[in-house]
Design brief:
Helix 1 runs parallel beside helix 11 and helix 9 packs antiparallel against helix 10. 41% of the residues lie in helices and 23% in strands. The protein has a ten-stranded mixed sheet with strand order 2-1-3-12-11-4-5-10-8-9, sandwiched between helices. It has a two-stranded antiparallel ribbon with strand order 6-7. The protein has eleven helices and twelve strands. The protein is an alpha/beta fold. It has two domains: 177 residues, Isopropylmalate Dehydrogenase (3-Layer(aba) Sandwich), CATH 3.40.718.10; 147 residues, Isopropylmalate Dehydrogenase (3-Layer(aba) Sandwich), CATH 3.40.718. The chain binds 1,4-dihydronicotinamide adenine dinucleotide (NAI). 1,4-dihydronicotinamide adenine dinucleotide binds next to loops.
């Protein structure tokens, strides 16, 4: 592989199961002889433990330099404590597009032949952190308030990203998911912008459909095959992408990419899974598929294809699967079988 140029990239193993699935992913990438030169950094709870900061400056500096990162899940305290390092990373590097493909890898399950892509707006909406409590009568949390913000510019940017993606990938339909019947301003602007851009720039290149988020959640279960690419605002995208992951075998199978103009961070959709951390049973496939997206991103589509093919063979020919997929293999056993497959070519 000496003909491949070195590609500097930041590696954040993350919290909980993060280090286990990161190690597994690195073994797969090593077997593929990909030319990433990793700069290891910490963030999240590991950042707090190592240097008292959930998003250390060294980590930010590294990503600013490499513009490319593979990231394990980062823990966020619930209901208090520091703000999510994931959200802050997406803000810091203006990673406005969150791309989450979900494809059936194990045939014959409850839902077969799923091939959906969620494009989630990643920087705006209800995730901006404009929140506060109002104390009344000695109750410091008597009222909880949150303000969501969607801008015309932000809506245009994500809709164009989704529409261009559909054309590039030869897909057929985009469904805009909204709640413009109730949140007429916050998600109304999103729907309005999608319609405008489609009419002005993309008409007849693919079908544009629209659906209210609650109906979308139901239809994804009743008939997911009617969808192709979905584009939506931040919170709806977060929730629906976990639902979509459920259609293809759960969170262990769902990769994601956070993409901006000057940087891209690849990760699994799932979190740090504290309930199974350290037990050696986590499914590393989601992070491996995120690494495959990263290989596509840097122009190594052949390596990405090799990795996906080896995952397919390990699952469906060797029948080596982790517990979340109904198998008996641990993370290491699955990874060893996968590496074997990669080496066989
Ligand atoms: P989670 O995604 O960590 O876990 C949900 C369920 O799925 C758990 O039962 C877990 O065991 C299972 N699961 C997740 N990944 C798995 C895998 N690879 N293999 C097998 N089973 C798997 O969600 P949860 O528990 O709500 O969040 C835990 C922590 O992760 C929180 O601190 C949260 O803020 C953080 N988080 C971080 C994300 C990120 O870094 N992008 C995304 C989502 C959550």
């Amino acid at each position: 592989m000496s003909d491949l140029k070195n590609i500097p990239a930041t590696l954040i193993p993350g919290d909980g199961i993060g280090p286990e699935i990161t190690e597994a992913t690195l073994m797969a990438l090593d077997a593929l002889a990909v030319p990433f030169v990793w700069d290891r950094q910490v963030a999240g709870a590991a950042g707090v433990t190592a240097c008292g900061d959930p998003l250390p400056q060294a980590c930010l500096d590294s990503i600013r330099k490499t513009q490319l990162a593979l990231k394990g899940p980062l823990e966020t305290p619930i209901g208090g404590g520091y703000r999510s390092s994931n959200v802050r990373l997406r803000e810091e590097f203006k990673l406005y597009a969150n791309l989450r493909p979900a494809k059936t890898l194990i045939p014959g399950g409850r839902f077969d032949n799923i091939d959906l892509v969620m494009v989630r707006e990643n920087n705006e909406g209800l995730y901006m952190g404009y929140e506060h409590f109002i104390p009344i009568d000695g109750d410091p949390h008597a009222v909880g308030m949150s303000t969501g913000i969607n801008t015309r510019q932000g809506c245009r940017r994500i809709c164009r990203f989704a529409f261009d993606y559909v054309i590039r990938k030869g897909r057929k339909k985009v469904t805009v998911v909204h709640k413009a019947n109730i949140m007429k301003a916050l998600t109304g602007i999103f729907l309005e912008t999608a319609r405008e851009i489609y009419a002005a720039e993309y008409k007849d290149k693919f079908i544009l459909d629209e659906i209210i988020v609650d109906a979308c959640a139901m239809k994804l279960i009743m008939n997911p095959w009617q969808f192709d690419v979905l584009v939506t605002t931040n919170l709806f995208g977060d929730i629906l992408s976990d639902e979509i992951a459920g259609l293809v075998g759960g969170l262990g199978m769902a990769p994601g990419a956070n993409i901006g103009e000057h940087a891209a961070i690849f990760e699994a959709v799932h979190g740090s899974a504290p309930d199974i951390a350290g037990k050696g049973i986590a499914n590393p496939i989601a992070l491996m598929l995120a690494a495959a997206m990263m290989l596509d991103h840097v122009g190594l589509a052949d390596k990405a294809g090799q990795l996906r093919k080896a995952i397919d063979a390990t699952l469906n020919i060797d029948n080596v699967r982790t517990g979340d997929l109904g198998g008996k293999a641990g993370t290491q056993e699955f990874t060893a079988a996968l590496v074997q497959r990669i080496k066989q070519g």
